[in-house]
Design brief:
Strands 1-2-3-4 form a four-stranded antiparallel β-sheet, covered by helices on one side. It contains one helix and four strands, in the order αββββ. The protein has about 130 residues and is an alpha+beta fold. The termini are far apart.
């Protein structure tokens, strides 16, 4: 009677399949984590752009210069400086009859720049 070797071809193939699927799972977890990070970054950029546009339109509607800083929570709700996660800073320059605004959105936790935007308006739109 012939005895089969303890590591028969079935078990070797089974172990190789498990190894292949383990490596594939590791790669997929990394890809999904990276995609989630890109999604969060994209959402922050979109929210920053919308908030900056809101600041510009509010300043135009109220005929007033915008504030120097605006603070926001994680979900982009206006808040105080103490509980802020994001900040939008506004720099104003006056040149001849044009007022130039530079907006910069930044993550306060990572000090990463999220979005920058510039706007120019004819002087006299504000009082």
């Amino acid at each position: 009677m012939k005895r089969e070797h303890p590591l028969s071809p079935f078990y070797i193939e089974f172990i190789l399949n498990l190894l292949f699927f383990a490596i594939a799972c590791c790669i997929l977890v990394y890809v999904f984590a990276y995609a989630d990070a890109l999604n969060q970054k994209s959402q922050n950029q979109q929210c920053a752009a919308i908030e900056i546009q809101t600041i510009i339109e509010t300043a135009k509607a109220n005929s007033a210069l915008p504030q120097d800083t605006y603070y926001y929570t994680q979900d982009w709700q206006i808040c105080s400086k103490d509980s802020a996660v994001f900040v939008i800073t506004v720099q104003t320059q006056f040149k001849n009859t044009i007022t130039h605004f530079s907006f910069a959105a930044e993550n306060l936790q990572t000090h990463e720049s999220i979005w920058t935007m510039t706007a120019a308006m004819k002087a006299g739109f504000y009082s």
